[in-house]
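Hi everyone, sorry if this is the wrong subforum. Our group has a chain we'd like a structural model of before ordering constructs, and none of us has done structure prediction before. Sequence below.
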Amino acid sequence: MDVKIRLSSKRLNSGRCQVHFHVRTKTGDGKWYGYTLAEPQDTVSEVVNRIRSRFSRAEDKISLHQKVLYHMNEHYREMDDLMIFRAP
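Answer:
Right subforum, don't worry. Here is the predicted structure as tokens:
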């Protein structure tokens, strides 16, 4: 899936970075925004690739909805640590 990604970030007290991103698909079928946590050693390209990967999987019919919401009582962590929401 071909997407345009815009990023902003802020450093947390833990040393990690909270990354806020906006994604627009070039096919025009959606605008999305979300958050992810990046480790201090993560590069910008690694974070962008993680986001692109998630949207590529979505193109293969894997839902963008949050699996973590169904595991609130378990110690569950999604591998790519992305929270994605549809923009209004």
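For your construct planning: Residues 70-78 have pLDDT under 50 and may be disordered. The first strand starts at residue 3 and ends at 11.
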